[in-house]
């Protein structure tokens, strides 16, 4: 198959399966992939890291044997991985899947990655190393809260869309402001960007809150039972710094707190379940703002299959 240019949007129909953590995406993704000749492309900002399997709920070896999976174990935990790199990796994977005669199925819960694919990428202005170094020094000395307060003053629009604990994007917003004298939000409004995918069906899984929270509590117990603590101990033994962005994610930072003696085991388990529930709530808030997502209960398999069949039939007619 010949592509017009490497930057041309992918025009073949692509399926996307979204939803909060623990809602049941994995089981449905396998069923969809087997029924519609799909290969699965990860849409998860944590599953791209090697050596981090239990805490990120990666597909098992058996599940990967059933259906090819892509964008798992892409980089080491201490390597930088950002949305632009994900978009490049995901579009390349989708093109290769299509060439093989199969259909890409993007599965995950990282809304920012999907946004990059569907809306295009913002071209970042150059940031002098002196600006970057100065902000990192201030972060170490003053803390995140002080820098977030500064961002709220100089770029309130960006501050509203960046979580106060998202150090990477917080620093990026301040870097852009200090390097250009203009807010990141202003740059975003001015740039014309192109999507990378043009024909997409977004399927969302939604569950009643109590049922989802029960699934999350079960997921946490399973992760602990499968050896999440041992996984973190292995990462430390491999020499990965506890302060790494990947190591400060949900699950991993909780095990680190336990190992450092700050929490006992019962408190660790409680806080891990609580923070996972809060993360799921943030995911639903993000996805809830997108009117293009077709929502289903995880058990609505027949309705989901019918929706996909109608989408593919319509795409074929076009």
Major sheet description = 6 strands, parallel
According to CATH, the fold-level topology of the largest domain is Rossmann fold
Number of helices: 14
Which ranges are low-confidence, i.e. pLDDT below 50, for 5 or more consecutive residues?
1-6
What is the second-level CATH architecture of the largest domain?
A: 3-Layer(aba) Sandwich
| End-to-end Cα distance | 19 Å
Overall shape: it is globular
Q: Can you list the strand order of the major beta sheet?
A: 3-2-4-1-5-6
Structure summary, number of beta strands: 6
What number of domains?
2
Helix- and strand-based class?
alpha/beta
Helix content: 40-55%
> Strand portion, in percent?
5-15%
What characteristics describe this protein?
318 residues, alpha/beta, Rossmann fold, Histone, subunit A, 2 domains, 6-stranded parallel β-sheet, 6 strands, 54% helix, globular, disordered N terminus
What can you tell me about this protein's structure?
The structure is a single chain. The protein is of the alpha/beta class. Helices cover 54% and strands 9% of the residues. The chain is built from 14 helices and 6 strands. A 6-stranded parallel beta sheet has the order 3-2-4-1-5-6, sandwiched between helices. Helix 12 (252-259) packs antiparallel against helix 13 (265-288). The chain is globular, with a radius of gyration of 20 Å.
